[in-house]
Amino acid sequence: MSDKETINEQANAQPVFSIEKIYLKDLSLEAPHVPQIFLDGGEPQIEVRVATAAEKLEDEFYGVTVTVTVTAKMEDERILFLNEVAQSGIFRIANIQQQDVDILLAVAAPNILFPYARETVSNTITRSGFPPVMLAPINFEAMYQAEQANAGNA
Prior knowledge:
alpha+beta; Bacterial Protein-export protein SecB; four-stranded antiparallel beta sheet; 4 helices; 4 strands; elongated
């Protein structure tokens, strides 16, 4: 085996985690009581839900989606707005142990995607005439650990 073949073989065995594409998969905003709701006073109650999903697309390529749902309700339970953003990415993962691939898909990739989703949520809500909603950072590692603990108890 030549030195060049050895170098190529070593380069091919290096761990790879790369972003291939980041894109907005889905965006929706519902404001069922507009414009009347703008005339009513009151402070809405904001509920935020975050979910992640990952799938293998083909050899070494994975799709990851972070879905953020923000619901604002008035005291009388009328919905002020419902905003859902699905931010996705395609990631290349190669030469990495499967347990570490699972962590990359559940923690690292969502950490990359979440700032894009947070910006889309803020822009969409603000452009709709509502006060901005600034989402706090999410600890995807804690979410992953909780899911693992729940799976162990099931």
